[in-house]
Amino acid sequence: MPLLGRLVTLDVALHHVRGRRADIGPPVRNVGTYATPVKEDPFAVALEDKIALLLSCSETMLKQPGIISAEGNLYNQRELKTFASSEGAFIEQDLVCCGTAKSGFKESPGPP
Predict the structure, then answer these.
(1) Which of 25, 61, 90, 97 has the most other CB atoms within 10 Å of its CB?
(2) Rounded CA gap, 47 and 71, in Å?
């Protein structure tokens, strides 16, 4: 029997063995919006400013004794989500996540 036929047969069988529906009360109809609170939208910051920040961090690390290499990165993510249910709930979200990493590599003193 093809998959679709088996699924229809299973659905019909389950319909006959189901008990009473649980009464859990009226559906909750949440409607609203949420946005991550941010002091400054990271996507509104000019690329040149982001590069200048990373270069400044690298220059500061390279001024330290023994540091031979420095690197850094910025991470920005925006996720727009919408949830809607058949019971009437409708929630929109604007989620922002930001991060940074900086590393400085020191010269090896050699074998012990």
Answers:
(1) 61
(2) 17
| Alpha carbons 33 and 92: distance in angstroms, whole number | 5
Q: Measuring CA to CA, which residue among 28, 26, 25, 24 is closest to residue 91? A: 28
* pLDDT tens, position by position, 81-96: 999 988 889 999 999 9
Helix (H, G, I), strand (E, B) or coil at 12: helix
Domain borders along the chain are 40-105
* Strand ranges for 4-106 from DSSP E: 31-35, 67-84, 90-106
28-58: pLDDT as tens digits: 789 999 999 999 999 999 999 999 999 999 9
